[in-house]
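Let us work through a complete example step by step.
Step 1: write down the sequence.
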Amino acid sequence: MASPESSPNARTNEGGRESVALKVEGVAHRYPHFELHPTAFQAQAGQLVAILGPNGSGKSTLLEILSGHLRPHAGRVQLNGCDLHRLSPRERAQRVGLARQETILLFSFTVREFVRQGRHPHLGRGLFESGEDERWVDWAIEKTNLTQFGARGILEISSGEFQRAVLARTLAQRPQLVLLDEPTANLDIGYQIEMFQLLRNVAATERCIAVVVTHELNLAAEMADHLLLLDAGQCLRHGTVEEVFDAELLSRVFRTPVIVDRHPSSGRPRAVWVGPHRPSHQQS
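Step 2: predict the structure and record it as tokens.
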């Protein structure tokens, strides 16, 4: 299998990869009963960005705008200087990959067939996968630790393995911007950590940008380079974990008292719920 560095499809420069840059400039959108207020941030190649906030805060709306599927009422999204909303759907799919938590399966595919769908934006006039397409499918399956499941039915694997297959299908697109909506939902802690480590590794080694919507505050704090905190359609704060993890702010946004301390191993900030005191039961 051709490596990403040796493939003619790789994005190269003097450092081995093109420098990918994402610039979100005051994007806003209005629904009849909800409004995403102007939101702006930037990200660079190799970075993992986490979008945090309670339900209904505008996280998914922002992700849809970043994907190009939803046109903002104001502002713009630029990827390497290109306005994503001015690209054709095919051009956009070659640059941006969106991995949704809820993927509708109309047919029973093998895992490999499912991952191969990610190559569709790159197919030529023949509409059949080339040897290069198959190499990228192999690469995506290997990258997500799914090699042993390639011939298995997509409906026959676990939830964690399915989420990895969704990510593999997205990686097979070879996007510069990888977007994920709740990739760790309904997964146990082991799979959650594995998924974030995969994202961290992919962003770093492939020199792409990964943006993930998540409710896992402390995993985001450990793994992400940049955080956005949304509430009621407003971006209240964005920056490093040290800049965003403010106990008073988090308590207000999530409507529950928290304190912020340091993880004993990494030293990074973490949010700890302050629950009611439970008296110890002492035997008389």
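Step 3: interpret the result. Residues 1-17 have pLDDT under 50 and may be disordered.
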